[in-house]
Write a structure and sequence with these properties.
By secondary structure, this protein is mainly α. It has 11 helices and no strands. It has a single domain, classed as Tetracycline Repressor, domain 2.
Length: about 220
Amino acid sequence: MTKDRPSGQPDKRRAIISGAVTLFARDGYTRASLDAIAAEAGVSNRTIYNHFTDKADLFQAVIQESTQRVADTMVDLIDRHLGKIIDLESDLADLGLAFLSLLTSDLAPHFAIVRQINAETEHIPPTALELWQDTGPGRVKHHLAGRLREIADRGQLVIDDPARAAGHLMLLVSAENLRDRATPHDRAEVTTMVAAGVHAFLHGYEQRDEQDLKKRASHATRTAH
């Protein structure tokens, strides 16, 4: 007969996960110790082992919960901004800004963990890396590709490979483009960066009629001379 868990166990697990998120975000996987996580969570080491096999098991649980939450949010943003197109360029820019706003939201610790993962990939358990990619970036990219395919089917974009196009869009409005220029708090600079990224994306994928192409070619020729 299985023993019932003492009351309060779910709260203990939540405290452990919360403490682990803080430590993994701050110190990374390698440097974060179970002792420090236990102290942050206000529990004993023994309590951690009552819920998780080891640090790798705890890290995987953190990744699963954190990545799922962020991916759910990003998928919702994609549907909200691209579910019904009013102005394609404006809607794509609004989506990019919404993505970047997550960096300063209550989801910020997740992105700190992602930076730590990228910094010490070789030390991260492979199962955790695979889980993160499948649950997070892979899922979001797949969903975005689906929305871009729908837009292309309506004739507003020319896309042969929606997955590649989704990757391009995500990179062009990525926080990586803020390096040495601004922080997510610098709204004007972020808005400019996202607008430039969307403009570059549309330059490659936007549907254009023959007259528009001739105008662009003529402008390029005049500029060259």
